[in-house]
Design a protein that fits this description.
five-stranded antiparallel β-sheet; single chain; alpha+beta; two-stranded antiparallel ribbon
């Protein structure tokens, strides 16, 4: 599948959307084909992410950026729209199973749309910049309900450490919408 991770701050993804909205179907197909060819050329046999930059002015143009031979923090939105547990799949592949044995569809059709937002522990400065924050979490009430997933370690009483990544939670919202991204 594909996703848009354009909203970033300090080279860190803040908002991710899957499938990538507004992507031309021809570009979507060309990106998938390029990723498959790169994987085949490198004899890659597990889950990974191939990143491309798409030219907003000429959306049929794109450039290869990097390959990540691992799951990324935004894998959750791909899981939601593909209906596949990527962590379990990666472990099965790493243990020697093949995609054929797992009976995974070659290209799962996306179901709906998913958005992931990073919730960071930060102190906002007067100039609008952010610094990692720290302290004790007094109240913590993550959202819940149909189509909402929250990956977090936060809880009331948790003492944060500003010397590490300021990520507190990933809030993932998924809405099943037929034929989005087709």
């Amino acid at each position: 599948g594909d996703r848009d991770c354009s909203v970033q701050r300090h080279q860190q993804k803040i908002i991710e959307i899957a499938p990538a909205p507004g992507l031309l179907s021809e570009t979507r197909a060309a990106l998938a084909d390029a990723a498959i060819r790169l994987g085949q050329a490198s004899h890659y046999t597990n889950i990974g992410t191939f990143e491309f930059l798409v030219d907003n002015k000429q959306p049929e143009r794109f450039m290869f950026m990097e390959a990540n031979p691992r799951l990324q923090v935004e894998h959750t939105i791909t899981e939601m729209v593909a209906g596949v547990d990527l962590v379990a799949l990666q472990l099965r592949l790493a243990s020697g199973e093949t995609l054929e044995a797992i009976d995974l569809p070659e290209s799962p059709r996306p179901s709906g749309m998913a958005v992931q937002v990073r919730i960071n522990m930060e102190t906002m400065l007067p100039d609008g910049s952010a610094l990692p924050g720290g302290g004790v979490i007094e109240r913590f009430n993550p959202p819940s309900g149909p189509g909402i997933r929250v990956d977090t370690f936060g809880y009331p009483g948790y003492s944060t450490n500003p010397r590490f990544d300021s990520l507190l939670a990933k809030v993932i919202v998924h809405h099943r919408q037929p034929d989005f991204g087709a």
